[in-house]
Amino acid sequence: MSAGKHIYFGGTMAAVSDTPPAAEQRSRKAPKVRAVLAGGLVLGIGAAITLAAWNDSEFAKGTFTAGAFNLKGSTDGTTFTENPVDAPASIGFTATTANLSPGDVVSAPFAVRLDAASTYDATVTVSTETSTESLAGLTYSLTRTTSFGCGQAVSSTLVPAPQALGTTPPGVTFALSQGEGSAEGTPVYLCFQITANDALVRSQTGTTTWEFSAQSQ
């Protein structure tokens, strides 16, 4: 018999084992297992709790508006209007152009400027847009004048005579300035002078259209 406790019943000694039954051992171990499991649950909950990160944002916005730019022309130096290619301004010559003969010289003023809404200066290029029918025996010159009218002082020559009517040499340009505040731009005054020579053909008819193309600076 293994060592253990001894209990006497009526003079008879009975041995009592120190080793608890298996069920008792399991019952004693169970609280420990539960404690371990419970501890594991507590640790699991603790790992799931995380403080939310702080977030903050800054925003910047840009607004972009294109500047205005518009060229106008005038045949009288006072009233400036838009004159597109399909409706060009008709230049008023000092003498009738319906009955020219060799040696005749006719002239007509013209002016251009930027409108009040324009927010840029401009470079204007002069060219020939189109010509129709016959312009034989006709030449011209184009000058800048100090004020409106072909009788005014000439400040510069843009196209020297005799330039064949219906053509424009390359690189004919001049500058235009925008107006201050809400004012119209500073006008540029021009003078076209047409000369008929001996090559003029009787009863011929022809037209030519100049283009003033402004590019913002």
Question: Can you walk through the features of this model?
Answer:
With 217 residues, this protein is mainly beta. It folds into two domains: 35 residues, no CATH class; 146 residues, Immunoglobulin-like, CATH 2.60.40. 12% of the residues lie in helices and 36% in strands. It has one helix and ten strands; from the N terminus they run ββαββββββββ. The protein has a five-stranded antiparallel β-sheet with strand order 3-4-9-6-7, with no helix packed on it. The chain has a three-stranded antiparallel β-sheet with strand order 8-5-10, with no helix packed on it. Strands 1-2 form a two-stranded antiparallel ribbon. The chain is elongated. About 7% of the residues have low confidence.
Sum this structure up briefly.
The protein has 1 helix and 10 strands, in the order E-E-H-E-E-E-E-E-E-E-E. The protein has one helix at residues 22-48; strands spanning 5-9, 12-16, 71-74, 105-114, 122-133, 138-145, 154-164, 173-176, 188-196, 206-216.
Provide the number of structural domains: 2
Count of DSSP strands: 10
Give the biggest sheet.
5 strands, antiparallel
Which structural class matches the secondary elements? mainly beta
Question: How many angstroms does the end-to-end distance come to?
Answer: 119 Å
- In helices, the fraction of residues equals 10-25%
* CATH class annotation of the largest domain: Mainly Beta
Shape by Cα distribution: elongated
Tell me the CATH architecture of the largest domain: Sandwich
- What would you call the quaternary organization? single chain
Q: What's the pLDDT, averaged over the residues?
A: 83
